[in-house]
Design a protein that fits this description.
Order of helices and strands: EHHEHHHH
Strand order of the largest sheet: 1-2
Largest sheet: 2 strands, parallel
Number of helices: 6
Helix content: 55-70%
Shape: elongated
């Protein structure tokens, strides 16, 4: 079951899940652009993050189907928040997408009604798990390859650090 809009009978939690799914669709698209512009020796980090977001997407689609809610479909393309012309831009986009995904999942947590829904959401919003953790761990390596200041990039990859 897929649709551009959630079902009218959806709960606030279902609506938040649909919004997070829309973000996951955009992040998956964005990681395709990141992959196209990063160095081959760091592409394994990008592939790992991309696969984690695909898994999240698939889990949310299944969850929504189980709740009889139409899942929003991915758009044919997305407007990137910044131009991507080189590996440095690609790293910046990846960091921004991870932050955007974290924000979307935190909104899902706010709407969770059951312990199972809350646990599902919390594990996706935690920046120390999954793609966010891999990105943070690889920030120094990416900085070395692209001439960015190591400390500044690592700080940007951590959501608790100011920009």
């Amino acid at each position: 079951m897929t649709s551009a809009e959630p079902s009218s009978a959806a709960t606030p939690y279902d609506n938040a899940l649909c919004a997070a799914l829309t973000t996951e669709h955009a992040v998956i698209y964005g990681y395709g652009m990141v992959s196209a512009h990063c160095q081959p020796d760091v592409n394994s980090l990008v592939s790992s993050a991309l696969n984690q977001h695909r898994l999240r997407r698939d889990q949310v689609i299944a969850m929504l189907a189980g709740r009889s809610v139409s899942a929003p479909v991915a758009a044919a393309g997305y407007q990137l928040p910044m131009p991507i012309n080189n590996p440095t831009d690609a790293v910046r986009l990846a960091v921004r997408m991870e932050k955007d995904a974290e924000v979307a999942w935190r909104a899902v947590i706010e709407q969770a009604q059951s312990p199972q829904d809350r646990e599902f959401s919390v594990t996706r919003a935690d920046p120390k798990r999954g793609a966010g953790r891999a990105l943070e761990a690889g920030a120094g390596l990416l900085a070395d390859h692209h001439g960015l200041p190591r400390r500044r990039l690592a700080a940007r990859a951590r959501p608790d650090c100011p920009r």
